[in-house]
């Protein structure tokens, strides 16, 4: 069985190849972001990353952010969201809760309040359903700041929302009028 450190390291590597650089290991994703599990395992082994199917299942099941998903018979795998490569994840539009959250750091707050939240190189802006998750996301790059997003108001104004398989809320852009800094 993989150690916690190995599991984390493999999870990060899978995030890289399944979300951003599949070509780095000679992998191809289909139009919906899926790749065959045996193909992935073989591509990893060519990079001296020996992973059994049981190990891969462990990485997927224990990922705290549930970044990956298998298809029903576990013969295909994909990242749930966060791609910078072109994929159509097939999520259906969904009515969001009244308030969603975005975690960031102090240095970006001014720009966000002026320009809104942009998807940058990703397909969507990522929003959390709870403040604690947003705070954890913001901590990755410094002192976290949590912003509230008036999601129901945005939806009423015609903005589309989707929810990924792991519960992350997705939208194209959050205009500044729908963003409010939350007390620390």
TrEMBL record:
It comes from the Bacteria. Keywords: NAD, Transferase. It is an enzyme of class 2 (transferase). InterPro entries: Ptrans_KptA/Tpt1 (IPR002745), RNA_2'-PTrans_C (IPR042081), RNA_2'-PTrans_KptA (IPR022928), RNA_2'-PTrans_N (IPR042080). Pfam families: PTS_2-RNA (PF01885). Its EC number is 2.7.1.-. Removes the 2'-phosphate from RNA via an intermediate in which the phosphate is ADP-ribosylated by NAD followed by a presumed transesterification to release the RNA and generate ADP-ribose 1''-2''-cyclic phosphate (APPR>P). May function as an ADP-ribosylase. Belongs to the KptA/TPT1 family. NCBIfam families: PRK00819.1-4. HAMAP family: KptA. This is Probable RNA 2'-phosphotransferase. It comes from Hymenobacter saemangeumensis. The lineage of its organism: Bacteria, Pseudomonadati, Bacteroidota, Cytophagia, Cytophagales. The gene is kptA.
